[in-house]
Amino acid sequence: MNKPIMFLVAAAAIFALGAGVYATAPSKSDTQTAATSKAARQGDKAKGEKAKGEKGHDEKGHGEEGVVEMSDARVASSNIEILAAKSETLHDSLVLNGILQPNQETLVQVTPRFPGVVREIKKRIGDTVEKGELLAKIESNQSLSVYEMRAPISGTVIDRQISLGEYASEQKPAFIVADISTVWVDLSVYRRNLPRVRIGDRILIDVGDGGKPIEASLSYISPVGSSDTQSALARAVVPNIDMRLRTGLFVSARLILSAKPVAIAVRASAIQTVENRSVVFVRNGDKFEARDVELGARDSDNVEILFGLLDGDKYAAKNSFIVKAELGKGSASHEH
To answer: The pTM is what?
Structure first.
C-alpha cells in the first residue's frame, strides 16, 4: 500500500475515535441537571427527617399551643379550685374594721350582796349556766353567815373577778354572765365615709376563720365620734350561730353601697395575663385551655366577663397561677 493511502486511512480512524469520545461524554447541561436532581432528593430527605423529628417532639412534648395537660390528681394536689362561670352580683362596697363585743342588753354583772370572804366557787370563765344556778358562796362579814350567789339569767360566764379565800366587795362585780346567742359587731367609720353610711345598710362580715361571710344590717350609728381615732361607731347585732363569733376578736366587714347583676362572672383570682392578654384557664377533660377574655366591671371577689366564656364553663379559680407557670414551661421548651 502506498503512503498517501495509509495517511488517509490513519486520518479517518483518528476522526472516528474523536467522534465516539464526544458522543459518550456528558454535556454541561446534563451535568447541572443531575446535580440539581441529587440536591432536590437530599433536600426532600432532610425535610422528611425534620418533619419526623418535629412530630416526635410534639408527641413527647407539649402538644397544642395554649393548652396545659394536668390530671385531676395533679389539680387536687396543687389545690387548684375548679368553679363554673355563672351570673353574679357585683358590689360597690366600703371596707370597715371592727371588733366583736358582748351584747350589753343581754349581759348581767353579778355583785355580792354583802362584803365577805369567798368560801366556795362553782363556776369559771366559759362555763354555761342556767338561771338560778349556784355561782359561789360568800361568808358575810356582818353576820358571819354564808350566803349564795346565783346566776340571774341563763348564759355563759364571760368574766370572774373573785378567787377562793379573798375578800369580795359589793363595789365590784364577782361574775359577768352574758347571753352570747347574739353579739355586737362594732365597726369604725372614718369621718370621710360617714355621709355614705346609713342605718339599715347591708354588711358582709368576715370573721377571719376561713368560713362564709355573715350577712347582717346596721342597727345603730353613734351620734358622737372619737377624738383619738377620728371615727364613729356603727353597730350590727348578729346571731351567734354555732358559737362562731367570739367576743374580743377583730373582724372586718364590707358595707354594700350598690349592687350590679352581671350575666357571666369569674373569681378575680382566675384572671391571668399571658403575652399581654387577659386569659382564664378553662378545664376541658384533663387539659386547661388559655381562653382569651374581655373583662368588664369588678368588685373585690368577682370579675365580669363580657366575651370569651359561656355560662357553666369550668375554670381554674384559686391557684390558677400554677397553670400559668406550667404553660410557661411548655413555651420555654418549644424554643430550644
So the answer is: 0.61
Does some domain include residue 270? yes
CA 122, CA 134: separation in Å to the nearest integer? Answer: 7
Joined grid coordinates for residue 92 = 360597690
DSSP H/E element including 200: none
Render the burial of 64-99: b for 16+ CB within 10 Å, e for the rest.
Answer: eebbbebeeeebeebebeeeebeebebbebbebebe
Q: What is the DSSP string of 136-161?
A: EEEEETTT--EEEEE-SSSEEEEEE-
Per-residue pLDDT tens digits for 78-120: 999 999 999 999 988 899 999 999 999 999 999 999 999 999 9
Burial class (CB in 10 A: 0-12, 13-18, 19+), 253: buried
Q: Which residues sit opposite 176 in a β-bridge?
A: 109, 159
Coarse DSSP helix, strand, coil percentages of the chain, rounded to the nearest 5 percent: 25, 40, 30
Q: Are residues 188 and 312 in the same domain?
A: no
Sheet holding 146-150, edge to edge: 146-150, 134-140, 116-121, 167-168
Q: Tell me if residue 308 falls in helix, strand or coil.
A: coil
**Which residue type sits at 280?**
V
Residues 96 and 206 in one domain: yes
Query: Domain of 299?
Result: 67-90+262-334
- Asked, for residue 41, whether it belongs to a domain, the answer is no
